[in-house]
Amino acid sequence: MRESKGKAVVVGGSIAGVCAVQSLLSAGWEVVVLEKTTAPPTGSPTGAGNQAIDAEKKMSRILTRDESFNFRAAHWSDLHGLLYNALPPDIFLWGHVFQSFCVSDEKKSVKVQTKVLQTGNIVEFACDLLVAADGCLSSIRRAFFPDLKLRYSGYSAWRGVLDLSGDENSDIFAGLQKVYQDLGKCLYFDLGSGTHAVLYELLNKKINWICNYESKQQYDQENARATWCEEHKHDSDPLHQIVWDRVVLIGDAAHPTTPHGVRSTDMAILDAAVPVLHSRKMGRMKQGLVLADGKVFDPITATPQECKDLQQKCMPGFNNVP
Ligand SMILES: Cc1cc2nc3c(=O)[nH]c(=O)nc-3n(C[C@H](O)[C@H](O)[C@H](O)COP(=O)(O)OP(=O)(O)OC[C@H]3O[C@@H](n4cnc5c(N)ncnc54)[C@H](O)[C@@H]3O)c2cc1C
Questions:
Q1: What is the pLDDT of residues 61-79, one digit of tens each?
Q2: Residue 88 has what DSSP assignment?
Q3: Cα–Cα distance between 45 and 48 in angstroms, integer?
Q4: Among the four 53, 61, 161, 306, which has the fewest Cβ within 10 Å?
């Protein structure tokens, strides 16, 4: 039997959590995952998408095309299911809400307290490494950055996945494919000032849809905590530190980003600094909001370089990714 490298507690059993578990197990660590939801997720849509269709003038204008870009979107829950099902289920403790942690004086171990939802009991775990995969509103991050407030992007979204996989003869799917022959490439509809919708096809007859709309109301962090998962989009400037002795932040806990870069789920920790800012710029361009140089992106007067900036393949770290 391989000697254990140590014990790790991962808080959060979503995408970043299951990826961390894969890496830790293959590196010889013992792992336990504390996840506040009571069962593995069964569905959660994500997506983003670049052909502009002007609703008012009833015309289509090509802003940018990624013809040779071999990019294919995946449904979040398909991806999570694939990663999760490849792991031993007994290392996941569902219904365990992380409460607090304490690093030993000699900085060699960590004690983690968690509340068991079913009993209300507080249970303590001792470990050598605490991995914070608890998402964009990470409470572990708050211990290191108590004053950090997420930055509201200025726009919100409705989103969902139309699942037609069970309907062999779906008229809706056939109709969409007939009308929009570019469906697989992401369609980007201009629905009026500051509003756009995105449609693209996922595997197995699923259609991802998002409707982004300008919303000037500022959401504070407390509000964001309750509503992030719904639709208000936030990010933060890249953190100057994500590892402290025995604690590491990963995924959205380390780099909360707006979804326009289509990169957050698979964003590697080391490339976090660049995609967050690029994703922010892309989101503001697509929403017609004021950019860092004080100007607003205008599709009519846009330069070729500005149109190129909208291409997904120009996203830092995204080149030649299959
Ligand atoms: C509108 C929208 C569109 C998006 N579109 C895309 C896209 O097109 N492409 C893309 O790649 N990404 C997209 N994303 C982002 C993507 O969903 C996240 O980047 C990804 O899920 C982050 O994974 P994570 O594991 O870091 O965090 P999360 O998925 O947020 O998971 C955090 C986990 O920690 C758990 N948790 C939190 N607190 C506690 C606690 N105290 N105790 C125990 N468990 C806890 C939560 O229950 C959750 O399971 C989008 C997001 C939004 C909101």
A1: 555 555 555 555 677 777 7
A2: -
A3: 10
A4: 61
Interval between CA 7 and ligand 1 midpoint (Å): 24
CA of 265 to the centre of ligand 1 (A): 8
- Which residues are CB-neighbours of 228 under 8 A, at least 6 positions away? 136, 137, 150, 234
Tokens coding 116:
């068991």
How many CB atoms sit inside 10 A of residue 206's CB? 19
Q: CB-side exposure of 295: number of CA atoms within 13 Å?
A: 7
The bridge status of strand 187-190 relative to strand 151-163 is unpaired
Which parts of the chain are beta strand (E)?
A: 7-11, 30-35, 51-54, 59-62, 92-94, 96-103, 110-116, 122-127, 129-132, 151-163, 187-190, 195-202, 206-214, 232-235, 243-244, 247-249
Q: Which of 116-120, 125-129, 144-148, 314-318 has the lowest mean pLDDT?
A: 314-318
